[in-house]
């Protein structure tokens, strides 16, 4: 009974596998000859040592024998030759592996007389293991482009009825420069579009026998790759397959000299033709077809066409030079001072600045503080861990930010205003945890218990430019950090990735009142978060009793006034520099 039960289970298993093969066959397109073959056990045929390649070859021969030479496209039945070894074969399932490129090595170049540096040898011996682990962790943390669907041109005009501030930016250009500025702007925009790679939408054909990659094919400039996944899934008397490129050439990495009935034209050229009557040979050649980039470009896109008869497919091939990896060593001890530098700018408020530094030293006695100083009469800040950079008088707010951040050597910097105060709730480590645990580039906190952030919503426009809308709040919570939201901009208290912010920069044209403009420049390039659980204090705004301090305060206020002319200049800059036609604030 036990034996019978065992055989029943085996028969049931065979029945299930047969149903799976039938289902897979029915799923295949009606004009394709998918065939399922169940092989006998190798022990029954006496070929235990036979390779899997030979098994597959015999299975094809068996299917060809059954189909005969009629050439009719008739459905093949399932052939039962035993139940011990079951293989379902079809042109849609048979794959040739794409070889993986071996890791690079400099060692062999020594023989050619080149200077070779094995960089691991230059690490301190007592820090080798630790530094390697920190480097690996940094590399894993070091790194998506989200396409915006195109729709009708945006307009801000209708929003004015709802009490929203609407700025038609063209109106802020000088009247005598309107025509000339518009022409210059259009010319600059055309040049910008040439430099920036746009995504081309590729539609997959329906019921096509062509199998091909639709995303992810990438080649380093002037290098060669195997084109992965190329395959034909159809049985025809004869096959004529073509590949064509504009920025590269094709070749094959398989020897076909001994195979009859195969013709290949265009090896090493931009157009390659493969002609054969054997589907197996064709797919073997396609699986070993290479693409070679012939243009040095750090970021280009080639659209390769893959065709057979009336079928046509487009394969995007990204020609891209990967940027060199740049990691920051957090140090052996992982101290916060090795990760973060505090930056600020001061102008006519040395008393405030000294109070800020005093509060920082209560909680972070050794952390470096960088001060950009554009006072008319500079005063030296006496602190061994303060770097003070003197600028021309009243050079400006964003120029000072650029200078301060440019001198940061740590992975992150914390920006604070010179009249802030550190408290027991100013935990830089908590902001570091957010950046280390996400793909954010910067994260803001709260100032004096007030949590402020805003969204920037962009809409595609027409020949007059795009539309941008400012709205308070955030987009959605950040997973794993319940006190944080994803947003578009934050207050002047934020922790940021140094290199990512330097890649955007602070426009020095904005030398007085400016803040949102930085986040506008960073839209689409910076991932921004805002957290309410980390707070910095704010010094009290009191009228100074000291006469000299009072004069300084009054002078400072005169520079901080957001005049009508300054607002006009900022809005005109948005029109030209950011290709915006209108800007609204909700």
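-> sequence recovered:
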């Amino acid at each position: 009974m036990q034996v019978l039960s065992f055989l029943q289970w085996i028969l049931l298993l065979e029945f299930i596998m047969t149903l799976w093969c039938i289902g897979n066959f029915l799923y295949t397109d009606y004009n394709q000859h998918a065939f399922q073959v169940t092989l006998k056990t190798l022990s029954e045929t006496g070929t235990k040592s036979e390779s899997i390649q030979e098994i597959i070859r015999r299975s094809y021969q068996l299917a060809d024998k059954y189909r005969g030479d009629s050439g009719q496209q008739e459905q093949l039945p399932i052939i039962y030759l035993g139940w011990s070894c079951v293989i379902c074969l079809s042109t849609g399932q048979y794959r040739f592996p794409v070889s993986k490129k071996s890791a690079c090595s400099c060692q062999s170049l020594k023989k050619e007389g080149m200077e070779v540096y094995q960089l691991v040898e230059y690490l301190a011996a007592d820090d080798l293991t630790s530094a390697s682990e920190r480097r690996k962790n940094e590399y894993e943390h070091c790194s998506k482009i989200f396409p915006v669907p195109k729709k009708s041109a945006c307009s801000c005009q209708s929003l004015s009825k709802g009490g929203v501030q609407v700025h038609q930016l063209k109106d802020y250009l000088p009247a005598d420069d309107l025509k000339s500025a518009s022409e210059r702007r259009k010319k600059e925009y055309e040049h910008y579009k040439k430099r920036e790679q746009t995504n081309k939408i590729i539609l997959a054909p329906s019921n096509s026998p062509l199998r091909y990659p639709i995303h992810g094919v990438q080649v380093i400039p002037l290098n060669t790759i195997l084109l992965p996944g190329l395959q034909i899934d159809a049985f025809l008397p004869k096959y004529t397959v073509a590949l064509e490129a504009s920025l590269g050439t094709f070749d094959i990495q398989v020897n076909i000299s001994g195979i009859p009935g195969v013709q290949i034209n265009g090896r090493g050229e931009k157009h390659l033709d493969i002609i054969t009557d054997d589907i197996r040979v064709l797919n073997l050649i396609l699986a070993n077809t290479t693409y070679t980039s012939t243009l040095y470009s750090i970021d280009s896109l080639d659209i390769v066409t893959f065709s057979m008869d009336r079928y046509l497919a487009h394969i995007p091939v990204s020609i891209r030079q990967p940027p060199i990896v740049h990691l920051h060593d957090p140090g052996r001890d992982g101290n916060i001072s090795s990760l973060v530098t505090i930056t600020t700018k001061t102008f006519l408020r040395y008393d405030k600045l000294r109070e800020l530094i005093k509060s920082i030293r209560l909680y972070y006695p050794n952390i470096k503080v960088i001060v950009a100083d554009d006072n008319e009469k500079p005063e030296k800040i006496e602190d061994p861990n303060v770097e003070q950079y003197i600028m021309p008088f009243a050079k400006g707010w964003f120029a000072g930010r650029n200078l301060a951040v440019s001198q940061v050597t740590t992975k992150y910097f914390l920006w604070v205003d010179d009249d802030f105060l550190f408290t027991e709730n100013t935990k830089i480590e908590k902001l570091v945890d957010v950046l280390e645990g996400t793909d954010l580039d910067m994260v803001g906190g709260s100032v004096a218990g007030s949590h402020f952030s805003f969204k920037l919503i962009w809409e595609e426009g027409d020949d007059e430019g795009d539309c941008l809308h400012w709205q308070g709040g955030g987009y959605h919570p950040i997973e794993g950090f319940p006190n944080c939201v994803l947003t578009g901009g934050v207050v002047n208290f934020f922790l940021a990735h140094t290199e990512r912010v330097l890649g955007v920069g602070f426009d020095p044209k904005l030398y007085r009142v400016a803040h949102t403009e930085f986040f506008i420049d960073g839209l689409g390039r910076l991932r921004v978060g805002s957290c309410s659980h980390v707070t910095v204090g704010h010094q009290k705004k009191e009228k100074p009793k000291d006469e000299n301090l009072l004069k300084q305060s009054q002078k400072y206020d005169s520079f901080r006034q957001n005049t009508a002319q300054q607002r006009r200049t900022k809005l005109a800059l948005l029109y030209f520099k950011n290709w915006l036609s209108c800007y609204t604030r909700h």
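The longest strand covers residues 528-538.
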